[in-house]
TrEMBL record:
It comes from the Bacteria. This is Helix-turn-helix transcriptional regulator. GO terms for molecular function: DNA binding. Gene3D superfamilies: lambda repressor-like DNA-binding domains (1.10.260.40). CDD domains: HTH_XRE. Signal peptide: none annotated.
């Protein structure tokens, strides 16, 4: 994933129009459009201006070659849009794995950026795994995840190629999932 993709995602989640961003950054709409489309390589100063216009600060962070939650949600959204439930599921499990393997500071960085919305169920599922993994380390849940509540009565299970539609026992579903209506066994959230 690239900085431009992060800027594009930040613009979408903040609902900032190109006209608004142009006014905030002093860039032309045309320049911003080509930059955000990824059709030209921007200078670092331009990236910083656009990031600042979106309320972001560009930092180089040591993430241990791990994709962020927002980047993995983009992969999930792409997989869902093409009907590839197996890839969507693997990307979801990757969120859990990345957050589990990282030190506390890196966990916060991996989950800091609000991911794009997929749909209410996937949004709740992503919020649940972030809440679960960060809470397990005594870390705060990001505002975006705390606000994605889901429907506790839903009892939705993320589709997977081996899915037999059998819901796990309630005792095996972490509270952060069950409270959002996401039914996944905690043991599924760890890769072999």
């Amino acid at each position: 994933m690239t900085v431009v993709e992060d800027l594009r995602r930040a613009r979408a989640t903040s609902h900032t129009t190109l006209s608004q961003l142009a006014e905030l950054t002093g860039q032309t709409r045309s320049n911003l459009s080509t930059l955000l489309a990824g059709t030209r390589d921007p200078q670092a100063s331009t990236i910083e201006r656009v990031a600042n216009g979106l309320g972001l600060t560009v930092i180089a962070a040591p993430l241990g070659n791990r994709a962020t939650v927002a980047q993995l949600v983009d992969r999930i959204a792409d997989a869902v849009s093409t009907g590839n439930t197996s890839r969507a599921y693997r990307s979801y499990i990757q969120i859990a794995d990345n957050l589990e393997a990282a030190d506390p500071f890196t966990r916060i960085l991996l989950a800091a950026q609000e991911p794009a919305s997929i749909d209410a169920r996937y949004d709740a599922a992503v919020a649940a795994v972030v809440d679960w993994r960060l809470s397990a380390a005594g870390l705060p849940t990001p505002h975006w995840a705390a606000n994605r509540s889901g429907d506790p009565e839903d009892r939705w299970r993320i589709p997977a190629e081996f899915d037999d539609d059998q819901l796990p026992d309630a005792a095996d579903v972490p509270d952060s999932f069950r409270n959002r209506g996401i039914w996944i066994d905690a043991k599924e959230l760890t890769s072999a």
